[in-house]
Amino acid sequence: MSALAPALAVDESADIAQGDHRSLQVVLATPPSALLDQARQRAVAEGLKYAGGLHPTEAWVLFQAGAAVLVDVRTAEERKFVGRVPDSKHVAWMTGTAMIRNPRFLRDLEKVVTKDTVILLLCRSGKRSAAAAEAASAAGFGNVFNVLEGFEGDIDNQQQRGDNGGWRLRGLPWIQD
């Protein structure tokens, strides 16, 4: 993890600038079980139909600690041309340019994780992964969490992504093919 320290130090200022309630150092000092409990409490408060939502830094800490599997639900094209998290799994929630729901999503998900695995779903902005989390939870996956803000964050006033939250803006590790 020491090789990632410079990138993560940038992340802390990005979190604070974007209004997250806790700095990276606080998240790093929080045990994985407590992060999951907090996300579950948020889910209850928000009436979510899945285990909960995690901020990108929280998801990174869980993934890096081996406490969860990160599954990217974006299309293969998004991963290739926009970037991806190293060592994440890929199961597309939607496919093709028409963005049609992948009818094999649940079967494909079962190929990469078990139903009792702690699963972190990541998409572009956190919306598709929330829908995928609901579907997975309804199918019996008991520990499915949505990565809030997604990989790129929400669209800003100029109708662009990348400056309004997201994994990349937080300075978390990612690569591009």
UniProtKB/TrEMBL annotation:
Instruction: Tell me which residues make up the Rhodanese domain.
Output: 64-163
What residue stretch is flagged as signal peptide?
none
Q: Which Pfam families does this chain map to?
A: Rhodanese
In terms of Gene3D superfamilies, this protein maps to:
Rhodanese-like domain
Name the InterPro entries on file: Rhodanese-like_dom, Rhodanese-like_dom_sf, Thiosulfate_ST/Rhodanese-like
Q: Which PANTHER family match?
A: RHODANESE-LIKE DOMAIN-CONTAINING PROTEIN 15, CHLOROPLASTIC (PTHR45431:SF3)
Q: What is this protein called?
A: Rhodanese-like domain-containing protein
